[in-house]
Amino acid sequence: MDSFRLAQRLGATGIESDVWLTRDGVAVLDHDGLVGGRLRRRAMADVDSDELPAHVPQLPELLDFVESHRLALSLDIKDPAVFAVVRDLVLTRGPDLVARTYLCFDDFATLRDVVADAMGVQLVDSSRLARIKEGPERRIATLASLGVTALNMHHTDWNGGLVTLAHRFERLAFAWDTQFEPVLTSLLRMGADAVFSDWVDRMVDAARATTT
Predict the structure, then answer these.
(1) How large is the greatest C-alpha to C-alpha distance in the chain, in angstroms?
(2) Interior CA angle at 58 toward 55 and 59, to 5°?
(3) I need a surface site. Which of 74, 139, 157, 199 has the fewest CB within 10 A?
């Protein structure tokens, strides 16, 4: 949570995290979904929430934070079992937060499976261009037919033509791992709808430079 608060103070307009489900059914935030020392690492699914270190927040704490600062929120659904829990927590906060929240899946089959149960929450296909065997146009058309909001790819996979293609189908174009100013500036000038970076100051400076 300290990192999220710092990002907001530095000017980030959205927060990204990975979300997992504990053994007792609590949605928690962590990068790799493992707890414990090097000699005894356990998956979140094998640990109750009250056994977790104090620095691992539960999802409602993050939802409170993004609501209070009117931030966008991107959550990587790392465990399919956590989807319904996350969906319900977001829906209970009302339409304003739903409109600013994006649930991302890196497995397309899982994404297709949950579409029918989305209940209005926004879904994102997180992929790599090389993994899209049917080609980007057909994939984006499929996302549009399914009602999936956005395609999220590594920054090296995007170009101006693909961003335009996503927009032609009224889908959003998200780019991750945008760590350096030339990359950030290039993507923002292409019209990317969101960029994800570990360097908030660089990201904010690039966004300001491309809108002035």
Answers:
(1) 52
(2) 130
(3) 199
Whole-angstrom Cα distance, residue 8 to residue 11?
Answer: 5
pLDDT (tens, 9 = 90+) of the chain, 212 residues, equals: 999 999 999 999 999 999 999 999 999 999 988 988 776 889 999 999 999 999 999 999 999 999 999 999 999 998 899 999 999 999 999 999 999 999 999 999 999 999 999 999 999 999 999 999 999 999 999 999 999 999 999 999 999 999 999 999 999 999 999 999 999 999 999 999 999 999 999 999 999 999 86
The one-character DSSP state at 114 is H
- Distance separating alpha carbons of residues 37 and 78, to the nearest angstrom: 21
Residue tagged 């409602």 (tokens): 60
- Rounded CA-CA distance 101/87 in Å is 10
Q: Are 113 and 79 in contact (CB under 8 A)?
A: no
Neighbours of 163 (CB within 10 A): 20
CA distances from 58 to 9, 29, 61, 89, 128 (A): 21, 6, 6, 11, 29
For residue 173, count CB atoms less than 10 angstroms from its CB and return exposed for 0-12, middle for 13-18, buried for 19 or more: buried
Q: Residue 13 gets which letter from DSSP?
A: S
Tell me the C-alpha distance between 79 and 18, whole Å: 10
Structure tokens at 85: 């829990």
pTM of the model: 0.95
How far apart CA 109 and CA 129 sit, in angstroms, is 16
